[in-house]
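Reviewers asked in the last cycle whether our approach scales beyond single polypeptides. To address this, we selected a multi-component target totalling 303 residues and predicted its structure end to end. The input consisted of the following lines:
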Amino acid sequence: MKVIVNIQLKNGVLDPQGKAVHHALSSLHFNEVSDVRIGKQIILEINENDKTKAQQRVQVMCEELLANTVIETYSIEFPA
Amino acid sequence: MKVAVAVFPGTNCEMDTKYAFEKLGQEAVLVFHKEEKLPQGTDLVVLPGGFSYGDYLRSAAIAKFSPIMKAVIEFANNGGYVLGICNGFQMLLEAHLLPGAMKRNQNVHFVSKYQHLKVIDNNNQFLRKLSNNDIINIPIAHGEGNYFIDKNGLKELYINNQVLLKYCDENGNTDNPNGSIDEIACICNKNKNVFGLMPHPERAMETLLGSEDGVKMLQGFIK
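The resulting structure, written as structure tokens, was:
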């Protein structure tokens, strides 16, 4: 089963990369952009058929390694 | 004194660190990340700078699961002295031996230069040879040195005198090379046996090479 983990800096934690990209977009005259936040996406292929079990396991993976919960939040998705 | 310098795949400051302690007349041994035990009689563990595991995922995120890190965490929890320099500081944060986290530098660039630092608190083993408000000049070289901690955590750091060094200019005025909260460059844990800093004292051991301000810092650990 495929599981997608999205990781982002928490709200209120300044994102230097996002800021730099926002600045670059502004200099290209994309003035409608009011904010940019950059995160990362981790795509896992998991040998597990039970969605609830997979969800629990991936959550532990996020807490232990994939995300640094001091500054990051994560969400777990199951693509159709 | 016996200093154990941990070496991970991608570590690149281990020889400088070994040299620095040997110059101070101490025994320094390199310990490979696959080791499960620290050498008998280790007095100080140094986690040196570099790019452990290619800095994949996040700086130092993978190093914390190395076999040697279990021994280092146990050593630290038993009161042993641990010093994390640059990537080593990031490891201590990832391993939760120190509070907070590192973000990309505010200007998104890798910064490599000499940087002045102000001593905020010398009441600890690491900085005891220096005086408060001393200004020292030490190289920095990092892309993720933007120290972050939430408001409550920051308050705790100050209450417990855990903020040890701040970035400044040569006159001691505010100068922040990476966007760190409150210009923090070095912290320790509550028990004052685990220290982490982004600047490289081991690269400031010879006046001929620019600075020997690192000598007084590392000497603090010597009994």
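The beta strands of chain A are 2-9, 40-45, 72-77. We regard this as preliminary and will revisit it once experimental data from Aim 1 are available.
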